[in-house]
Design goal:
The protein has one domain (26-118): Cytochrome Bc1 Complex, Chain D, domain 2, CATH 1.10.760.10. It is globular, with a radius of gyration of 19 Å. Helix 3 packs across helix 6 (107-118) and helix 5 packs across helix 6 (107-118). The chain has 6 helices and no strands. By secondary structure, the chain is mostly helical.
């Protein structure tokens, strides 16, 4: 029983410490859009592919696509995993044309671009 109390005390202490952490600031839609417009992959080839095939929609709030770097918008998509995202990329999804109209993108390019835009791990 004392072991259980010790475990519960550690859990309670952890919850108290977690509650003391500052909350992540909420970004406005304008801030998210400005960040999306400014982002580009570090790799020059990917940056070129992104600017010609992805940026028009993923840096435009009116396009309906999740904005580049908007982790909250990408989180449910990332949770589905890379295979599901690649199905959407290759086949098109809602207003997105098949392949995102990136005719020179390889499968690895598509995955790298999705990871870049999602700004989080996607498995």
């Amino acid at each position: 029983m004392s072991r259980l109390r010790a475990i519960l005390a550690l859990l309670a202490a952890g919850l108290v410490l977690a509650a003391c952490q500052p909350a992540q600031p909420t970004r406005s839609p304008a801030e998210i859009a400005a960040q999306a417009a400014a982002m580009a992959p570090a790799d020059a080839r990917l940056a070129d592919l992104y600017s010609h095939a992805c940026k028009a929609c993923h840096a435009n709030p009116g396009a309906g696509a999740p904005l580049t770097g908007d982790r909250a918008a990408w989180a449910p998509r990332a949770a589905k995993g890379m295979p599901a995202l690649m199905t959407s990329v290759l086949g098109g999804y809602k207003g997105m044309p098949a392949g995102g109209q990136c005719f020179s993108c390889t499968a690895d390019d598509d995955k790298a671009l999705v990871r870049f835009m999602a700004d989080q791990p996607v498995n």
